[in-house]
Amino acid sequence: MVSVSRTGATTKCPDQLAPETRTTTSNEEAFTAFFIEQETRLRRALVAAYGGERGREAAAEALAFAWEHWDRVARMDKPLAYLFRVGQSRTRKHRTPVIFAHAENDAEAFEPGLAPAVKTLSINQRTAVVLVCGFGWTLREVAELTGTKIPTVQKHLDRGLANLRHALGERTNER
Amino acid sequence: MNDDELNRQLRAMVDGAAAPLSQAEVVLRASSPVRKSRRDWHLTTHRLIVVAVAAVIVVVFFVPLPSLSLFNRLSHTGLSSEQSSTATIPTGWVPVTLGDARISVPASWWVLYNSPDCPRGKEPGEVLVNPTPTACSMPLPGDVPKNVIELDSFHGKHYGHLKVINGITVYWSGGNVYEVPLLGISIGITGPLGERVLNTLTRLPGPTVTTPAGWVPVAYGDAQISVPSDWTVEYEQACWSWRAPGTVEVGPGGNGYCPSNGGRAVPVVALGPRPALVKVTSGPRESVNGLTLIRYFHNAAETSYFVPSLDVTLTLMGEGAQRVIHTLTNSPRTVALAPGPAPTVPSSWQKVNLAGIDFSTPADWHILRTAYSEGIGGPCPPEGIAFRTTSVTLSTDVKPLSFVSCSAPDRNLPKEPHNGIQIDQGAPNELIVPLAKKCLKLHGLITCPEGYPYSILVLRVTVPGRSTPAIVSIGLAGNGMIARTILYSLHPTGTNTSPVPTASQHEINALVSMEERASVQPFIATYRISQPVKGGWRTSTVFVAQRSRLILMNRDSTSLAKSRYEFEAVLSFNKAEASGTPEGLYTCTRLNTSVAWNCGDVGPGMTGSMLLSDYEPAFLAEEVRGLAQLSPPVRYPLARTVEGKELACLRFGSGALACLAANGMVAYFSTSVAFDNGFTGTVTLLSYSSHVPANAFALPGKPQPGK
Q: What stretches of B86-221 adopt beta strand conformation (E)?
């Protein structure tokens, strides 16, 4: 995967760089490249699991951890999954409710009943449904992120979608 | 909803729930001192600190010294303890109040209210409260300065060096004049005791509103600031504006990195949530209006403060922004949600019901019933900021508002928030932004504060036996007490009982005898009259008497007959009143309660203007029903002897008396009151409260003799 850093240089993802390449790249540049590449994915994953407030906080904590321990994180095979766990554990004490605020403009608006319906799903189901359906992640990517197997993710996805449809249907009928 | 649409909405929901992170934010977070210190803590050290902190808490909580005991502080106030009155009255001095401000002066000084004249320099000292603006000559060089204190409304023109007196920020604005924006007053001092009097300045206990004239309050969460009414106000903007003559940015948003489209000379003030990136625990501390501010960022263009007790950030940029900081105070929300006893619902309020919820509002609030869902605070954005009118809106929400024309103004001016209440019976799922504060249990209702941290208190109210909660929105204006009274009047339909009086007669008597006999504080007393009408009784509040002036006794005698009867009773809906002073009798009239008083100084020897006869007080009392008139026993025959002492009495109606001793009200004589319709009614004391700010019921302003 290739991306462009803020300096305009074409950069490969850190987990795809050869060891000798890493040693020739400064830590800051490497982290910048990693940040540009993975921040969105990590934030979306954590927000999907824990809502806007805790999810963003967890992403910030995880990326701050990555900055602090870049030497170690840069050598990991699956840094995203590792940081996902870091974000989970570092914000565990917060216990904030799952919140999905309304969008500010119509183009990003969503059905008012969607957020309450998504909140009824379990964390695993919510993560699978949002990442796979909403953002086109593969089952393998979600499985790597959450440290589970592909069939497990498939099961969460199926049940999550069913539950989501059910919840949306109920809310629609209530009106 | 098809799959594609569902997928799109899932994306929108997640991406809209959290803003992207910047690398700078992450690096800043990683390098924050708090984080580093937390990381470096050894487990054993951590445990030791926890034990030490617990020990300190135990010691402070139970230490037997009243001034240090946290338990004592917590048990005596429901609001921020930082805001309590701290100044004590020196022995032999008496308090003088204007609004929420209180100073103390020697008991032998003269106190003159609403004087149209210049200071007369009476010995040993003189206090002019709310004097009519007059050009007064300055003392000549060589004159011995006399003790003169002028307690006036806030000029708001000059700001200079500041000092903090009893937790209140005071500005020296030149000469001998000090400005106190927090209390909305200015103080002029001369004479050898002037400085000492200034140092007794304090604020009367209780919630206050400190918005200078011509300014508008802007609230966020527990904090409120005030800004000039011609400033632009913006809510939750990603990029701040720089619009002249000033801009106030409210709520989350704005990171300071947006390009400026205006000169940095334009003042910009931002009031928002606590810093997202760094936990502020250290930094230079400043005290403003009794609140502690931690300055966590400062350069030539910008200063940012974190206010721990209010959990907000205040950022000031540009010239002239600094003056706003001195209006910082608790928002009405804190008063409405503060712990403590429920306020009493006035008997005159109307009862309203919707969605299984009963509540009370002032009787003159218009009730609008609608089937449309109009949003909170109106259908046009920004939603949930403030009510624009004072009314009761009951919405069943069965119909969506199909079309609303909302024109986008060139710029938004801050608008005065209004009281009011709106109940939305349906569509509660529109709100999914809880504030994470504790829910209140009110008479069986579970009320949880929801989003919108501005001037509307939005509550999700769950009624027992109902599956769908209702959304109750209460306007937050003034000092928040109306909102608090409405909030605490919420209860499930059918469970209400008759209004509970403020206090029982026994409690009132105890209060009067134990506290007010030993105090010369201002007080307010409300009387209720029950009048027999066809088919029952009509009960209404007919009389609100307030002693806003203090009784100054002659030093050589405590006899009321020799006292200077500087009482003043004000009736909220009076159209005429009289008050006695050592100089004579003031009489004041007004056409209605919304216009200014027109007063005349009868003066000694019946000279000067005379609106009403000063030797016909009975005529005056009977002309204006409910008139509260003090009757000094020497001049008027309205006196009673209680416990061997002759007391001055307030008279209203044709036979009801409330009699005052020199140190407070001690007796009320309930007699029948004759009405025009021939019935008689019974007057009873409904409530009695001390420590009420002066002039609370004297709208639209104190009588100004001579104007």
A: 93-98, 101-106, 110-113, 126-129, 148-153, 162-165, 168-172, 177-180, 185-190, 202-203, 215-220
